[in-house]
Write a structure and sequence with these properties.
heterodimer; A: about 250 residues; mainly alpha; Ferritin; globular; B: about 300 residues
């Protein structure tokens, strides 16, 4: 597969796997309005992913459909970061995972508006509007946790401390990123990192939350080396097409 | 000097009934008999709970939806059901009871939800059968409820009906696709119909002759059609749809009458009452799920409240 399509997949897989985790949470929200918001975000992310998989299939032009790419791909061929695979724990963990990803996606899509690749430029413009809403929601929750009850403060800080080590992978430049940046297609991860950090600092300061003092990093997903979680996600997701390979749904 | 005169309850009742007779809606601040209010409190909250508990059997298949399109449709449908729950809780709150109270009654077992959701969703075709049959039965009932006499309930129904008819078509599309598919898919579709047919018919409630609350509800136009009338309407509409795609309704005693309508076999009301009284296959699971989510969300609701005050 050519580097550009792998670059597409990195973006699509992050959206797909996070939306899968959110969809697991449907009917489990802390109150009905928040349950619906959770599903809204899941739907937006599937929408982004679906457009990209469709484009990958189109550009590959080898008979594989967008769904084939999702439902008939091996675990090691998924290129999402490990953070989005992390299981739903409590609402604080769900929201911290969301907040870190929202800030990343916002900055990624902002940069990709200048991509030389017409498809990426288009999807960046379209997705940016949605991701801005996602970030508004997750930032507000950071504030409600940080400025709310002691229990909430404790839970959110625990989630931040746990997930911080997974955030570095967003900015880890692999060979695909380097090639795409050179070609003017991909975005500059060092700029995204700077802007990401600034936004996180701003929201955390406002919410009285802190960043753990460690450089420890867990990574690998972008290169196909995942946590144990992804296998279970895909086992469930790909169950029907795997069990009934000839069926059309 | 202007003489003021207290209006007696009898007179208020006459005015209330005259309004209903004239097809005017009763609004939250209007006088209404306690029996009318209590009937609505029970009915609308039960309806709201049904929408919310109904998210669970379909939620069971979101992560296993076999295509991105089907996953999106299913998620959006479940989200719609949650949204219906919201409208209905809002309508029910106009009767002077808070959503928190309604949820507490649900958790205490004092409030019911539609028993159909105590059936398990066992294969992907169940997503079709639920949309086609359960939403189909619900919409048959809800179309008539658009004309219900209580204003907030009636307006909620108008909005809900638009979405439910969409759900029914989506459900039927899943069944149709599966019947066009492999032998395994056809078997799944028939299996789902076999399991959901009777629970869907039971959604209309007991036969009119055994329905204790129909009397006043009809008189005050909360209910506009009887259980049996609506059930038959649903059956007559649904059986040709099943036959069109090669499915067979699991009723050995079904008779096609000369006028083109159907007479169905006996409904197993023992099963129905067992389920209503808490002993269906998933009663405990559905309620436990709701209680667990509500309990686990309590710190979130609390911090939202506290941070709002600290702002």
């Amino acid at each position: 597969m050519e580097a550009k399509l792998k670059y597409y997949l990195q973006i699509a897989d992050n959206a797909l796997i996070l939306s899968h985790r959110l969809s697991e949470n449907c009917s489990k929200g802390p109150f009905l309005e928040e349950d619906l918001a959770n599903t809204n975000v899941a739907l937006d992310l599937i929408g982004i992913a679906e457009s990209i998989y469709g484009e990958v299939a189109k550009q590959e032009n080898n008979g594989r459909s967008g769904d084939d790419i999702v439902y008939r791909r091996k675990e090691s061929e998924f290129l999402n970061v490990i953070l989005v695979e992390m299981p739903n724990e409590d609402f604080a963990h769900i929201m911290v995972r969301q907040f870190f990803t929202d800030v990343f996606q916002l900055n990624l899509f902002s940069e990709l508006r200048n991509s030389k690749d017409e498809f990426l430029m288009g999807i960046a413009h379209k997705s940016l509007k949605e991701v801005m809403y996602h970030l508004k929601r997750s930032s507000e929750w950071m504030y409600r946790f940080g400025q709310g009850t002691d229990e909430a403060k404790e839970r959110v800080q625990k989630a931040i401390n746990k997930y911080w080590k997974y955030t570095h992978e967003f900015f880890l430049e692999n060979t695909i990123d380097t090639e795409m940046l050179k070609a003017g297609i991909g975005s500059d991860l060092s700029i995204i990192k700077k802007n990401w950090q600034a936004k996180v600092d701003e929201i955390f300061e406002m919410s009285n939350l802190s960043i753990p003092d460690t450089d420890f990093s867990i990574e690998g997903g972008k290169n196909g080396l995942h946590s144990e979680n992804l296998g279970y996600i895909l086992t469930e997701m790909q169950f029907l097409p795997s069990k009934y390979p000839d069926a059309i749904w | 000097m202007i003489e003021t005169k207290a209006i007696s309850n009898e007179e208020l009742l006459l005015q209330f009934e005259a309004k209903i007779e004239a097809e005017q809606k009763i609004e939250p601040l209007d006088w209404m008999p306690d029996e009318y209010r209590n009937h609505l409190i029970r009915q609308i909250s039960q309806h709201a709970h049904s929408e919310v508990i109904g998210m669970q059997p379909e939620g069971n298949w979101i992560t296993r939806a076999p295509s991105l399109r089907s996953k999106k449709i299913l998620l959006a449908k479940i989200q719609d059901e949650g949204g219906h729950g919201l409208y209905l809780y809002s309508a029910a709150e106009t009767l002077g009871v808070s959503r928190d109270q309604y949820i507490q009654w649900l958790h205490e077992g004092k409030a019911k939800y539609s028993s159909v959701f105590n059936s398990p969703a066992l294969n992907w075709a169940d997503m079709g059968a639920i949309g086609w049959l359960v939403d189909g039965a619900a919409i048959t009932n809800q179309v008539s409820l658009q004309r219900t006499s209580y204003g907030p309930y009636s307006r909620a129904m108008v909005r809900i009906c638009k979405e439910e008819s969409f759900h029914q078509r989506q459900g039927y599309e899943i069944m149709w696709k599966m019947m066009e598919g492999t032998k395994d898919q056809q078997e799944m579709a028939q299996d789902a119909l076999n399991r959901w047919w009777w629970p869907a018919l039971m959604m209309f409630g007991p036969h009119d002759s055994d329905s204790p609350r129909t009397g006043n509800a009809m008189k005050w136009k909360i209910k506009r059609e009887t259980n049996d009338y609506l059930r038959e309407k649903f059956i007559n509409k649904t059986i040709p749809q099943a036959e069109l795609i090669g499915l067979k309704v699991p009723d050995a005693n079904l008779i096609l009458l000369e006028d083109g309508t159907y007479k169905h076999g006996d409904i197993n009301w023992d099963d129905f009452w067992k389920n209503v009284n808490g002993n269906g296959p998933c009663n405990e699971q559905r309620l436990d799920h709701h209680i667990k989510a509500h309990k686990e969300g309590s710190w979130v609701r609390e911090t939202a409240y506290v941070s709002g005050k600290n702002k």
